[in-house]
């Protein structure tokens, strides 16, 4: 019996359910910001599949290769970005195979761009960082100097610095430390150099 107009075939509904469950199982392996980033990459891949009218659980290796070329040639992503997003796709399909949602992974043997072992991004020179510190110190927003010192002197990631608060500053074995929530919701205590400690406690009218 044919399905009424405007409705999906039962098999399509079942496929959507299996896909949602498979995605939830895969994302369940991650927490915090890692989960947010992984979910975003997976949604981008699913959206591409929808644009190509291909079901993610019916896709084949040559079509996954097309996804890689789309990221490289259309979106102009850097090799590191392409490699990271393909790692998410590969991990998703491996989980599908483990959970018997698929017999084989279509992402196996898909070539990823070569990513240099060492980052090609150069940091600020000593003089450039001093100039940045001076500009932040003279800024009308007193939070600018605190942010720059946390990024430059403590080496925090931007989300770690922005997620920190004055209440996270404390003492441990006689040393002033900052409680930081890092990747994977891991909590670490970072020793505070005097410059960072002063910046985090600047008076509001300074």
List keywords for this structure.
three-stranded antiparallel sheet; 206 residues; elongated; hpI Integrase, Chain A; disordered N terminus; 8 helices; mainly alpha; 53% helix
Helix content: 40-55%
Low-confidence segments: 1-9
Q: What's the overall average pLDDT, rounded?
A: 82
Strand content: 5-15%
The total tally of domains equals 2
Q: Output the number of helix runs.
A: 8
Main sheet properties: 3 strands, antiparallel
Secondary-structure element order, N to C: HHHHHHHEEEH
- Coarse morphology: elongated
Strand order of the largest sheet: 1-2-3
User: Kindly, what is the distance between the CA atoms of the first and last residues, rounded to a whole number of angstroms?
Assistant: 77 Å
Report the C-alpha radius of gyration, rounded.
Answer: 23 Å
Category by helix and strand content = mainly alpha
Q: Number of DSSP strands?
A: 3
